[in-house]
Design a protein that fits this description.
mainly beta, SH3 type barrels, disordered C terminus
């Protein structure tokens, strides 16, 4: 995998909200993959890579944050809509 590229702090806030609320997310990855999962937590590794921890139908999974293309909450009354992560720019 490539060298980790940290995420803009403003975008990180959306993931924190998703984890705090336990939102179900439609997750789009930069490689074209897509999955549906519940946001559980985030973590930072010893070498400063950041991950989103998810609960999927197959169990827990971690996704490195710089692999995210977009997330869309699937819960009614979510506090935000689709967030696109592209070169530290957020579009709605």
């Amino acid at each position: 995998m490539n060298t980790y590229q940290p995420m803009n702090c403003d975008l990180y806030d959306y993931l924190e909200i998703a984890c705090l609320r336990g939102y179900r997310l439609d997750i789009e990855l930069k490689d074209g993959a897509r999955l549906e999962a519940r946001a559980l937590d985030t973590r930072t590794s010893a070498d400063k890579e950041e991950f989103l921890i998810l609960e999927t139908a197959d169990g827990k999974q971690e996704i490195r944050l710089d692999q995210l293309l977009a997330v869309t909450p699937l819960d009614a009354n979510a506090e935000f809509g689709r967030v696109v992560f592209t070169d530290a720019v957020c579009t709605f």
